[in-house]
Amino acid sequence: MTSTTILVADDHPLFRSAVTHALREALPGATVIEASSAASLNQALDARPGADLVLLDLMMPGTHGFSALLHVRGEHPEVPVVVISSNEHPRVIRRAQQFGAAGFIPKSSPAESIGQAVAAVLERGSWFPPLTAERSEADATLAAKLAQLTPQQFRVLLCMADGLLNKQIAHELSLAENTVKVHVTAILRKLECHSRTQAAVLVKSLEPEALL
User: Fold this and answer.
1) For residues 138 and 112, what is the distance between their CA atoms, to the nearest angstrom?
2) Which of 38, 46, 113, 156 has the highest count of CB atoms within 10 angstroms of its CB?
3) 212 falls in which pLDDT band (50, 70, 90)?
4) What is the average pLDDT value for the chain, to the nearest integer?
5) For 5-124, CATH number?
6) Bridge partners of 32?
7) Please, are residues 41 and 83 in contact by the beta-carbon 8 Å criterion?
8) Would you tell me how many other CB atoms lie within 10 Å of the CB of residue 133?
9) Confidence band (pLDDT; 50, 70, 90) for 183?
10) 148-211 has the same fold as 5-124
11) Do the Cβ atoms of 153 and 183 come closer than 8 Å?
12) For 203, how many CA atoms within 13 A lie in the half-sphere containing its CB?
């Protein structure tokens, strides 16, 4: 029988260790890999393309809130992602669902509940707390626009949001500057943005705090 592989991405070592322990208690024999940043999560996913699930904190270094969820879903659509966050606002939970998460676990949950929720996702495909927020058409539209971007275009978009110029983006992503220009043009068209600033504002709206 193949071992279940779960990636736990959170920048707080103590919480990460607690979650890892809870998962091993709930899923004996599971392989749990820890990642402390978006970069280390991407490396872990590239090394383990057959991972069964990612447990993802929304607020890690190198991310813009929901950007990490969107990035993983774009790069590895076959891997379910469960968001785990201290922000338990109903609109945050609803947005996670609309952006493709297979589940949402509040960080305030007891350890055994975290393990049970992950087991439920692996068995049934999803697990969410009771939702009180209405489905957002604006979020649905935003998710549809972002889904049009290729993984490389999404990486370029995040660099744009960080204020990098085309030359800097080219260096950061090891691309030709002309290639970056082509990506930027395509990004603005797909997102229906008229400027880089407008695209950057859109990325900033991915922060959970933008919903509150």
Assistant:
1) 35
2) 156
3) low
4) 88
5) 3.40.50.2300
6) 6
7) no
8) 15
9) very high
10) no
11) yes
12) 25
- pLDDT of amino acid 1: 44
Q: Which CATH architecture has domain 148-211?
A: Orthogonal Bundle (1.10)
Residues sharing a CB contact under 8 Å with residue 41, sequence separation 6 or more, in sequence order: 7, 9, 35, 54, 56, 60, 68, 72
By residue count, the chain amounts to 212
Q: Name the burial class of residue 124, with classes exposed (0-12), middle (13-18) and buried (19+) by CB atoms within 10 angstroms of its CB.
A: exposed
* Closest among 122, 121, 85, 77 to 103, alpha carbons compared: 121
pLDDT in tens, 134-168: 777 888 888 889 889 998 999 999 999 889 999 99
Residue 133: what pLDDT? 59
150/157 Cα distance (integer angstroms): 10
At 116, the amino acid letter reads Q
Domain positions in the chain: 5-124, 148-211
**Tokens found for residue 207:** 């922060």
